[in-house]
Amino acid sequence: MINILVISGSTRSGRQSIKAAEYIVQYINEIYGAEAELLDLAKYRLPVFDDNDKRHESLKTDLEFIREKMMACDGMVIVSPEYNGGMAGSLKNTLDYYRKEYEWRPFGAVSVSVGTLGGQNAMNQLTHFASYVQACLMPNRLLVSQINKIDEDGPAAKLFHDNAKAFSADMVRFSKAITESGLRN
User: Fold this and answer.
1) Into how many domains does the chain fold?
2) Among 68, 133, 138, 170, which has the minimal tally of Cβ within 10 Å of its Cβ?
């Protein structure tokens, strides 16, 4: 069974991107032979990254829990809203705590905005990050425009659901291909 970890990168109250992450988990779980789990970073709120950090034991527990989830999955989907022209700061901060966990791991990128461009700047940062940490970036990405309308009837909702279903199926296929290739240790 292919296991996909979907990381929701927003931690602020009133966030909309969690909806996209939850739908992706749902769609992956509907695909035969695949299972998705949501990792909601709002539950952790890690302090600003410091690679020489010797903080409280609870931080180590949270970091190890997240690391174990990353290492156990066959692929990761990162969902980020666009804040101030880039990916969510809380997401970038959390991603910075790890490095080897990404190497040769299938990586799907999802950016979210309430506007019409789907968080293009956040997407650019996500794809650059994936390349830098040597993840296997899935060729297609999911840019979600008008996230505030995906639960309504209308063209924005239909577009999101059609694209999210296709993205989810492609992520499972991509993760399976990389996992079965033996490229990952």
Assistant:
1) 1
2) 68
